[in-house]
């Protein structure tokens, strides 16, 4: 992993909705090749932070930089074009479309031929489409969803739909992928599969990952580095072991009071 120049940098980002402060002067950076996690209790501002990075929200204050470039004013589509991919906490698939078509939607911004140039130069458009299909097929094989490729997305189980959404985000060919609770609502087996895909995506595909996830076991097992938010403020940043032993994190996130813990240890 490179530690010289961050791939993503968030500087003093604050976000407010009327009188509600969702984020307050949050700073962090993500290095190229990292599997980076953002954790915190419900309402801590995790999804709001991802929305600021992906462009769905514009910070009230502060800046977001990607590859050294200020992207704070860019739209989500513009950020996708330069390499920022995203999944959502709530599924955002086209339920009436097939799995294959849903994934192909992720390739849309990469298409060079529109309907006019496609009609005039059909051979070039056809060649381009085949190249995009090959890329999509690689993703389908990687996520082991070939058996549902023609299925209507809305008819699939929740776990499979989560996998299809990841496939669509991968189809963007992002340099960094933002995963918003990729394992929410899954059973143990589905979580283990998704964790394996995320690790392989990072290690084998070389993709930088920023993940929000509530399953602390998964986060601490697969993350390179973790930050913790509480009421919109960053309270910790470090290696998984450092986060697990941080007393403020235990109180804020894990619900462990330091005095109670010492008392329990004394009784034991």
UniProtKB/TrEMBL annotation:
Stored InterPro entries: AAA+_ATPase, ABC_AA/LPS_Transport, ABC_transporter-like_ATP-bd, BCA_ABC_TP_C, P-loop_NTPase
Per the record, GO CC terms? Answer: plasma membrane
Q: Does the keyword GTP-binding apply?
A: no
Q: Which UniProt keywords apply?
A: ATP-binding, Nucleotide-binding, Transport
Q: Which residues form a coiled coil?
A: none
The terms under GO molecular function for this entry are: ATP binding; ATP hydrolysis activity
Q: Can you give the residue ranges of the ABC transporter domain? A: 8-256
Per the record's keyword annotation, is Amino-acid biosynthesis included, yes or no?
no
- Put simply, this protein is called High-affinity branched-chain amino acid ABC transporter, ATP-binding protein
Please name the source species: Magnetospirillum gryphiswaldense (strain DSM 6361 / JCM 21280 / NBRC 15271 / MSR-1)
Its ancestry begins with: Bacteria, Pseudomonadati, Pseudomonadota, Alphaproteobacteria, Rhodospirillales
